[in-house]
Amino acid sequence: MKVSEALDSPAWEKEPLRLEDVWDLLPPHLRYPLTTRDRLTPLYADEGGIGMHEHSLLSIPVCHIPARVVNAGTREALADFLTSHPAVAQHESYVTTGAFSLGSEAPPDYGIYNRDRGELTINWQMPQGQDSRAWQPETNDWLTCGP
Questions:
Q1: Do 30 and 64 touch, CB atoms closer than 8 A?
Q2: For the residues of 11-40, what is the DSSP string, one character each?
Q3: pLDDT 10s digit of each residue in the chain, 147 long?
Q4: Cα separation, 141 vs 147, whole angstroms
Q5: What is the DSSP annotation of 54-110?
Q6: Chain centroid to CA 1
Q7: Contact 137, 49 (CB under 8 A)
Q8: How far apart are the C-alpha atoms of 122 and 30, rounded to whole Å?
Q9: Are residues 63 and 119 in contact, defined by beta-carbon separation less than 8 angstroms?
Q10: CA 99 to each of CA 71, 95, 96, 122: distance values in angstroms, whole numbers, following the listed order
């Protein structure tokens, strides 16, 4: 008997859900993949790295960027990846390497904290009249940015 039958859920019949897709959404499972294919995993904001300054941009280190994106090292690879993370994709800018010499073509400046993941400091525009000191983590549902 299928789980969908036991739950009397015809939706499962139309579009079967693979265990590996649900598995990757649970943070403790990031280190234990069920597949070797490209995975779409949640991103996390490092609250400890958030600078609370009188500034119109909120800068947050965004963690768990997959190695395939980091290793590509291009703006295009990052933009393609972030299409699955709409809240993160709506950023103002991010830290780049060689911004003075390359301008808008400068690649992302990733930090590698594990051989299979990286991080990037991403900037968001604060609402009109507020600076980054007004940001409250509990009011921002995109702090954990799932696919």
A1: yes
A2: HHHHS---HHHHHTTSGGGGGS-S-SS---
A3: 566 666 666 655 567 777 777 777 776 776 777 777 777 777 888 777 776 677 888 888 898 898 889 999 999 999 999 988 888 888 899 999 988 889 888 999 999 876 778 999 998 888 888 777 776 655 444 444 444
A4: 13
A5: S-SEEEEEEEEEEHHHHHH--HHHHHHHHTT-HHHHT-SEE-BSSHHHHGGGPPB--
A6: 37
A7: no
A8: 22
A9: yes
A10: 19, 9, 6, 15
Output the six-digit token pair for 97.
């390497």
CB 88 within 8 A of CB 61: no
Q: How far apart are CA 22 and CA 121, in angstroms?
A: 27
Query: Alpha-carbon torsion 90, 96, 102, 105, what sign?
Result: negative
Cβ 97 vs Cβ 106: under 8 Å: yes
- For 121, the token pair is 């400091």
Looking at residue 131, its amino acid is D
